[in-house]
Specification:
single chain; mainly alpha; two-stranded antiparallel ribbon; 2 strands; elongated
């Protein structure tokens, strides 16, 4: 069951972050000690926010980040930036600039 939850968190990170906030008690508050960084993480870097919370709470001693946790945070940053960059790249590939404006590639 935890593996399924982890897979769903990768596919739907904002929904997973919402459920962690809703059902996780103080899981996010122990990692961030406030509400502003989880909120910004929800908006901009949801996988990174989840990875940091997991690293702070579940790896090693509570309140200390292990090297594996930092590795997970780095992978989360790369995944979040890949999701944002991949969307921009696919939109740019769909449209092609011409003199008279925008048109689909095969038109």
């Amino acid at each position: 069951m935890p593996c399924l939850v982890g897979c769903l968190a990768v596919v739907f990170p904002r929904i997973a972050l919402f459920f962690v906030w809703l059902f996780g008690g103080d899981y996010l508050m122990r990692a961030y000690e406030g509400w502003i960084f989880p909120l910004l993480g929800f908006l901009f870097l949801p996988l990174t926010t989840l990875a940091f919370a997991y690293g702070m709470n579940s790896l090693g001693r509570p309140g200390e980040m292990e090297p594996l946790g930092w590795l997970l945070v780095g992978l989360g940053v790369l995944a979040d930036l890949g999701l944002v960059g991949g969307g921009a790249r696919s939109t740019g590939g769909f449209r092609e600039r011409t003199r008279d404006g925008w048109r689909p590639p095969n038109a």
